[in-house]
Amino acid sequence: MEHAASLEVSVISAESLRFPTATTRKNAFVVVGTGSCDRRATAVDQRGGAFPSWNEKLTVPFPPQVRSIEVDVRCKTAMGEKSVGRSTIAVSDFIGGYDIPCGYLHFLSYRLHDKEGKRNGIINLAVKVLTWLPQSCLRPSAPLFPVPAAVASDGALVGIAIPYAQTNLPYHS
């Protein structure tokens, strides 16, 4: 029997979110999971609006059969919760054919898509493997939240990590 590994997912921030029109307050939070039962959530950001910030670390169990983790940015409304945008992160984006030591911190940014498959902001994360995964987890898989072909056919890259290099240099646009 294989034991589950664990990941530390640091949910840093999101950018350029569009909230559902019925939402008066932009109470955004993030749910990270590896399956229907293995989900963790951040606290609600009540001040960030379209650019929320959490800077929160979540420890997520990572069973050997799982090939991706799901990230869902949600907001609280008077009628409950609504999804703002989702992204699926392949395990191979932070573990792969490299000799990366356990505990290496990967800074990643992913495009979010709403329930219609339209682009809706970017999520910024850092992922660290706390306990090592078996080789069987390194094979790519199909995304859990596929984007409709009509949206993906416009040349957009879906589920591709945008590496973030942490340096001491100031950011210049």
TrEMBL record:
Organism field: Nymphaea colorata
Residues annotated as domain C2: 1-104
Tell me the InterPro entries matching this sequence: C2_dom, C2_domain_sf, C2_SRC2/BAP
Which biological processes are named by the entry's GO terms? defense response
Record's protein name? C2 domain-containing protein
Superkingdom of source:
Eukaryota
Q: Cite the PROSITE patterns for this sequence.
A: C2
The record's section on Pfam families has:
C2
